[in-house]
Structures are given as structure tokens and as C-alpha cells.
Amino acid sequence: MPVAARSYGNSSTVGVKVFCPESVVWELFDLGWNHQDYAVVDRICTDDCRLHFGPIELLMRSPQAKAVPERWVSAFPDFRFELLDAIEHGDTVALRLSFHGTHLGTFQGYPATQRTMQATQMIFARIESGRVKELWEDYDALGIWQQLGRKLEP
User: What is the per-residue pLDDT across 70-121, written as a single tens digit (0 to 9) for each?
Assistant: First the structure.
């Protein structure tokens, strides 16, 4: 059963719901990160949903994956995602997101700097039976560290 839908209609069809795959993926970020509803993963992702980020692969329902948004929000209490674009093609959804926050807590061992950061992120998701089956993500991690003032050596 789809977990997200978009309402369409005129006076004779008000309330008709049409399944909207990009809404499913956006809910994962909006509810899970913006509203800190970390249980959204269990509602939206399949049991074997995998997240790919560079060489890292995590099961979305694992404690390690569920801890990721908590660590970010702990370090950036005003962390916020914004949806910039959403495209659906077959069983794949692409989202272009922007996120920002103020570094007020320790992040990956780096103490708070009081600086703000902003980055864009690309998400590709595969949908199966109305749920997220697989995710690929990419964002400018180096740019974030530079905004926080951290000098990274090659």
C-alpha cells in the first residue's frame, strides 16, 4: 500500500488520491530529518532497503543508518532539508535537495564552530510496491568541512 499520495480532483472528484513516488522519497527526508520522526524509515522503506553513499552501504533499517540523522541534528540543531526538484522515471525517483544548519555540537569528532553550512544533495531512489527499496546519495562533504573552517589535507 502506498504511503504517500497527492490529491487531485475537481468538484466531482475531490479527495481522489493518486500514488506519487517522489512524495514517498521526500517524506523520508522531510519527516525523518526536518521533523525528527526517525520511525519513518520503518514505514517508508522495505525491510531490505539499502543506502549507498560512495563506498558505504547500509541497511536503512539498521541502527547504524537510523543513527545518521540523529548525529547530524545533534551537531546542527537547526538542520533543514528543502526540496528543490523531483523527477520520476519508471521505478526511479531523483531528488535534488538543499540542506543547511548551524554547527552547534560536535560533528564527526570536530567541535562546534558556530558557523553555518549549506550544501546540495542528489538522491536517487528505487521504489518497489510503493516503498523505498534502494537509495543512492551524494553531497559535497568537502564543501561542508570548508564552510566549517576545517583544513583537510589530501
Answer: 999 999 999 999 999 999 999 999 999 999 999 999 999 999 999 999 999 9
Structural domain of 143: 5-147
The pLDDT tens digits for 19-56 are 577 888 999 999 999 999 999 999 999 999 999 998 99
Domain assignment of residue 97, yes or no: yes
Helix residue spans in 55-133 (DSSP H):
63-75
d(C-alpha 136, C-alpha 62), whole Å:
16
- Cβ(142)–Cβ(152) under 8 Å? yes
Cβ within 8 Å of residue 56, ≥6 positions away: none
Domain count, the chain: 1
CATH no. for residue 50?
A: 3.10.450.50
Q: Domain for residue 152, yes or no?
A: no
Q: What pLDDT was estimated at residue 19?
A: 54
Quote the pLDDT of residue 1.
33
How far is 15 from 8, CA to CA, in rounded Å? 7
